Amino acid sequence: MAWFTRSPHFTILTLALTLGSVIPVSAQPQSSSSSLSRVFENAFQPPNRGLPDNRQGGASRGPCFVDQNRKLTALAPLAGGETTAEYPTVFWYMPKMSDKDGAAPSPVMEFTLIEANGQKIYSANYPLTKYTDGSVGTPGVMSLTLASPYPLKVGQEYKWQLKVKCDSNSPDNSENQFAEGVLKRVAQDPNIELRAQKASPEERIMLYTKANLWYDMLPNLVALRRDRPNDPTLTDAWNKLFTAVELDNVSIQTKQSNLQDGRTTNN
To answer: Do 78 and 53 meet the contact criterion of CB atoms below 8 Å apart?
Structure first.
């Protein structure tokens, strides 16, 4: 199975945005990926206080969701993550969906960006493809990059929400799956960015991890795993990361997963 696929309903985004010059796979020492595992083991730990976990879809599976144990999941730390980007990329896990019984007449995914004060500043619906075999969309890890004119403000926290509607024409929201993540834009550290420009992919990921920049780290990690899907040490690092942020179930589900990427539009 191809580990990286593209969705026809998103404008394609090349994930190697911050990779700079990529060192050939043959030149990468295996110890670099092993070092990633060690860095990830204790990375992005939530504070020692109770936090609501809204990263996964609700209990309702909806008429178009195939496996109740696999839910729409925001790929983000429980306490939220940081970024230096004006237009960061967010990632989520899309569960398997089916329309064999006509249960999903017009399935869509809704994306919403909300400021800390509760003000919605962006919302858009993306239709999900219905295939001839009855499947809907493509299960796996997907992404969306925020687009102009919605640059994030330094020092401000935002919530991003996803909602999968089996039938976008139905007024009943009880069967929708939803998930959300939190992100905050912080000021760029010139020293980190200078080092990142000269670093190997693994070193760059470690720099962003140690600086607690989840939304800068994850696109680089996804791109690296896409390019090296059969690297066992990289797979181990991926598993360690998602265990650290208490998303072990997503790590298991993405062992044979597809990766999709996309970009918001201003239509």
So the answer is: yes
Pull the structure tokens for residue 30.
Answer: 């295996």
**All residues at 6 or more sequence positions from 257 whose CB lies less than 8 Å from its CB, including other chains:** 3, 93, 139, 140, 141
Angle, helices 232-244 vs 214-227, to 10°: value is 150
Structure tokens at 62: 């909806």
Q: 156's torsion region: left (phi>0), alpha (psi -120 to 50) or beta?
A: beta
Q: What residues have CB less than 8 Å from 256, skipping those under 6 apart?
A: 1, 3
Rounded distance between C-alpha atoms, residue 130 and residue 199, angstroms: 42
Pair of tokens at residue 90 = 């967010």
Strands 258-259 and 140-145: parallel
Among 94, 84, 71, 93, residue whose Cα is nearest residue 183: 84
Contact between 140 and 257 under an 8 Å Cβ cutoff? The reply is yes
Domain ranges for the chain: 31-44+53-250
Q: Which residues of the chain have pLDDT under 70?
A: 1-33, 47-52, 57-63, 67-69, 100-104, 251-267
Tokens of 255: 């062992």
Residues 6+ apart with CB under 8 A from 42: 244
Token pair belonging to 71? 């839910």
What pLDDT is recorded for position 48?
A: 61
What is residue 102's predicted lDDT score, i.e. its pLDDT?
65
Domain boundaries 31-44+53-250, corresponding CATH code = 2.60.40.2550
Neighbours of 46 (CB within 10 A): 15
Helix (H, G, I), strand (E, B) or coil at 208: helix
Per-residue pLDDT tens digits for 128-162: 877 777 777 777 888 999 887 778 999 999 999 99
Which DSSP letter does residue 239 get? H
